[in-house]
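Handout, page 2. Input:
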Amino acid sequence: MKIGITLPNLVGGTREIPGWAATAEEAGFASLGTAGRFAYPAVSDTVALAAAAAVTERIVIAPGWPAALLAKEVAGSTRCRADG
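Output:
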């Protein structure tokens, strides 16, 4: 059985996410996900997943969004950085 865990992107800030991701990988979790809610202040899914990916090697990084919406956000973020 493979078990995943959600990143704490709804509480705190980005500082907690890399440590959480590294600890989850060391503990043997199979995947990391995000809650994907913007109704109140939170770290965006793409930022949380990028922070987790930076400190992990084998754990699967999995957004809670449909792939098309995630791709649209990533494409929009990339475009904004290139223009800025």
